[in-house]
Amino acid sequence: MKKIEAIVRKDKFEHVCQVLERSGIGGMTITEARGFGRHRNGLREKVKIEIYADEFQVDKIVEMIRLNSKTGTTGDGKIAVINLEKVYRIRTGEEGASAI
Ligand SMILES: Nc1ncnc2c1ncn2[C@@H]1O[C@H](COP(=O)(O)OP(=O)(O)OP(=O)(O)O)[C@@H](O)[C@H]1O
Ligand SMILES: [Mg+2]
């Protein structure tokens, strides 16, 4: 299992969100964030997206985020894929892929 963590432009987020909602992901979490990249031009408002996913979904999700959040200018953001040790569904106690 992986966590896909993406930091995208605020004005691209709604479009990315619509595409993700129509895809097969189990869910996602959004956080309003602020940050800077290598251009160091002050803290800019961004949106952080977090998705827990099974391995086979990862490439598709990364591409969906990348293609739908890109403008081609500096500040488009980052996508990270992070190893996920465990996921639990609180209600049922399910663990692992079935908890996604
Ligand atoms: N190394 C990093 N670690 C954590 N967050 C980062 C990092 N780099 C960028 N971010 C986050 O992503 C946002 C957008 O970064 P940005 O797209 O400007 O990265 P960049 O590496 O400067 O790429 P570009 O050259 O396209 O501007 C930042 O505001 C910050 O929130
Ligand atoms: Mg930058």
What would you say this structure looks like, in words?
This protein is α+β, with helices and mostly antiparallel strands and 100 residues long. It is 27% helix and 32% strand. The chain has helices spanning 10-21, 55-69; strands at residues 2-9, 29-35, 44-53, 77-83. The chain has a four-stranded antiparallel β-sheet with strand order 2-3-1-4. Bound molecules: adenosine-5'-triphosphate and magnesium ion. Residues 37-39, 74-75 line the site of magnesium ion (MG).
CATH topology: Alpha-Beta Plaits
Strand order of the largest sheet: 2-3-1-4
Rough outline: elongated
Number of domains: 1
**Hetero groups:** adenosine-5'-triphosphate, magnesium ion
What is the beta-strand fraction? 25-35%
CATH architecture: 2-Layer Sandwich
| Share in helix | 25-40%
Number of separate strands: 4
Largest sheet: 4 strands, antiparallel
Mean of the pLDDT scores? 97
Q: How much is the radius of gyration in Å?
A: 14 Å
CATH class: Alpha Beta
The helix-and-strand class reads alpha+beta
How are helices and strands ordered from N to C?
Answer: EHEEHE
- Unreliable segments (pLDDT under 50, ≥5 consecutive)? none
Figure out the total of helices: 2
Cα distance spanning the termini: 9 Å
